[in-house]
Specification:
The protein is α/β, with parallel strands linked by helices. The protein has 3 domains: about 5-170, Thiamin diphosphate (ThDP)-binding fold, Pyr/PP domains (Rossmann fold, 3-Layer(aba) Sandwich), CATH 3.40.50.970; about 200-350, Rossmann fold, CATH 3.40.50.1220; about 365-555, Rossmann fold. It contains 20 helices and 18 strands. The protein has helices at about 5-15, 30-35, 50-65, 75-80, 80-90, 140-155, 200-215, 230-240, 265, 290-300, 330-340, 345-365, 370-380, 390-400, 420-430, 440-445, 485-490, 500-505, 515-520, 540-555; strands at about 20-25, 45, 70, 95-100, 125-130, 160-170, 215-220, 245, 260, 280-285, 305, 320-325, 385-390, 410, 435-440, 460-465, 510, 535-540. The strands form 3 sheets. A 6-stranded parallel beta sheet has the order 2-1-3-4-6-5, sandwiched between helices. Strands 9-8-7-10-11-12 form a 6-stranded parallel beta sheet. α19 links the parallel β17 and β18 (about 535-540). α1 crosses α2 and α12 (about 345-365) runs antiparallel to α20. The protein starts with a helix and ends in a 6-residue tail after the last helix. The relative contact order is 0.11. The model has no long low-confidence stretch (mean pLDDT about 90).
């Protein structure tokens, strides 16, 4: 066994401050996990289910802003990482995946837990490597070093993402003496820096002149991490030079003044007449609102420049003039330095204010998922993390919007699946001291219950389940809601609750059926405790649909000409 090479791999990870290891139990992966577990400098997170492990690794990487090591045994275990690796790839999250493997001579020989693992994630990873299988030698020792150096560099280079290292082992792979894993060898540490693309005034002079001449400039923010530097420069642009920012809840810009947060509401009206956007400047990843995407595709701006450290062209709205591979903060800071005033149409601000007021009027005195989410968002503690599961949870929260300027928002919007939402939140909670709150629908909650099969359940997790007894989104969107077999094939009604899960794993549990129940349950809900907590809110799918359709009708009134 090449323990010397594995120790080199471990030491290089530590050199680059990579200390969190997520793994799922297995025999073939013993050399990998024992190498890290024998060293107290590393923190090991064990998840029984590889799918949960993968999403937890995403949460840890997001929270620590460093790559997470993800380890599994051979065979189908590797395939169970796939959903999380796919999410990490499209969300630009750095993971180093170490998959144990059988030696090549056993492939296609009907040997157990043996599948073709070579570049198994090729469509969703930034790179693939395979560790040498020969015993200790100077050559393999250097190969181990070079592979992990390259993997870390690729994973952390913009755009960041997952890198796969396959590790075939022959038996025996359990050390006779644990001291075999503490070999001290001379390791040559390479230093590398991600090259920062410099700002060129000449290159962007054309854009500056367009902003000065534009009669209607709008800046659109997709999904972003909470960034104080970004928030600061955008606030100054807004206050001093009249810049308007179109955002959603995943943009993490709720601390920026005068943002347009409610476009998803007023753009429910397909006949809404707005002045044409002359110049669109965009940054960030995916945009949550389908209404906004449809509007921009149907009402193309004259010019559209997108700023992102990404050499892959992304043209979501089919409007792109040019994508610029640059950190947007650098560009916005230069705008601020130049004191360039933005000219923008005030209709967007007016619509934003009207939409918020109409939303408030429609949902008040009606206990539905919408009103429940509004109460929850108002109750969030300062400096906490908010996780929004996919399907309706993230959309309800986007309709309501956030006022707490210190809340950090996370959501698996790379692929927007309902799998792994709790596991991702657990990953955050395990690597932070903040309260982590997740708002999740009942189907997504039950879909990811294997997240609880982990060592050291986090105490700082708060789970809020919106239980409408099925997939409520299919009751709201056009298409499925007109099909006779809606319930059987789409909403899939179920009678499961979260109460048994709470009892099984010693979580505090609160059952909510009305506004008074919710108000009482939230008292002390976010306080520190010995165990996690769950609030389950039972609502009527039909009543929520009625309120949603009423809201949609209100938004479709022609209040902007």
């Amino acid at each position: 066994m090449n323990y010397k090479g594995l120790v080199a791999l471990k030491e290089i990870c530590f050199k680059f401050r990579i200390k969190n290891i997520v793994h799922s139990p297995g025999s073939r992966s013993a050399p990998l996990i024992l190498t890290f577990a024998s060293d107290k400098r590393f923190k090991i997170h064990t998840f029984l289910d590889e799918r949960s492990a993968g999403f937890a690794a995403i949460g840890i990487a997001q929270q620590t802003k460093l790559p997470t090591i993800l380890i599994c045994t051979s065979g189908t275990a590797t395939l169970n990482f796939s959903p999380a690796i796919c999410e990490a790839f499209y969300s630009n999250i750095p993971l180093i995946i170490l998959t144990a493997d059988r030696p090549k001579e056993l492939l296609n020989q009907r040997d157990g837990q043996t599948i073709n693992q070579k570049n198994i994630y090729k469509n969703f990873s930034k790179g693939f490597y395979e560790l040498p299988i020969e015993k200790d030698s100077e050559k393999s020792f250097l190969q181990h070093q070079n592979i992990i150096f390259d993997a870390i560099k690729i994973a952390t280079s913009k755009p960041m993402g997952p890198v796969h290292i396959n590790a075939p082992f022959r038996e025996p792979f359990y050390p006779e003496n644990i001291n075999e894993l503490k070999i001290k060898s001379e390791i040559y540490f390479k230093d590398f820096e991600n090259v920062k693309i410099p700002f060129s005034n000449d290159k962007f002079e054309f854009i500056f002149s367009l902003i000065e001449k534009s009669s209607n400039t709008l800046i659109l923010a997709g999904q972003n991490e909470f960034d104080k530097e970004l928030i600061n420069v955008l606030n100054k642009l807004s206050e001093k030079f009249n810049y308007k920012f179109l955002t959603d809840i995943t943009s993490n810009l709720h601390a920026v003044k005068n943002t347009i947060q409610f476009s998803d509401l007023f753009l429910m009206n397909p006949d809404l007449k707005l002045n044409k956007i002359d110049l669109l400047l965009s940054f960030g990843r995916s945009v949550l609102s389908k209404n906004l995407k449809t509007y921009l595709r149907n009402n193309k701006p004259n010019k559209h420049f997108h700023f992102e450290e990404n050499n892959i062209k992304v043209d979501t709205f089919k409007t792109l003039t040019k994508q610029i591979n640059l950190n947007p903060i650098i560009f916005f800071q230069e705008l601020l330095n130049r004191k360039i005033i933005s000219h923008s149409n005030e209709n967007w601000n007016k619509l934003n204010s009207i939409s918020k007021n109409r939303l408030t009027n429609v949902i008040k005195n009606n206990f539905t998922e919408l009103s429940a989410v509004e109460t929850i968002l108002k109750s969030l503690p300062n400096n906490s993390n908010l996780h929004l599961a996919n399907s309706m949870a993230v959309r309800w929260a986007n309709f309501i919007g956030l006022k707490n300027k210190t809340t950090k928002v996370f959501s698996n919007r790379g692929t927007s699946g309902i799998d792994g939402c709790i596991s991702t939140a657990f990953g955050h909670a395990k690597s932070s001291t903040e309260i982590n709150t997740i708002i999740i629908g009942d189907l997504a909650f039950h879909f990811d219950k294997n997240a609880y099969l982990t060592s050291d359940l986090p105490k700082n997790i708060r789970i809020i389940v919106l239980n409408n007894s099925g997939g409520g989104i299919f009751n709201l969107i056009s298409g499925p809601n007109n099909i006779p077999a809606l319930q059987k094939y789409f909403t899939t009604p179920q009678k499961l609750t979260a109460e048994f899960t709470a009892k099984q794993f010693n979580f505090e549990y609160f059952k909510v059926k009305n506004q008074n129940d919710l108000d009482l349950s939230l008292k002390g809900f976010f306080a520190k405790s010995k165990n996690g907590k769950i609030i389950e809110i039972f609502t009527s799918m039909e009543k929520t649909k009625t309120i949603f359709l009423k809201l949609k009708k209100e938004m479709q009134k022609h209040y902007a000409k």
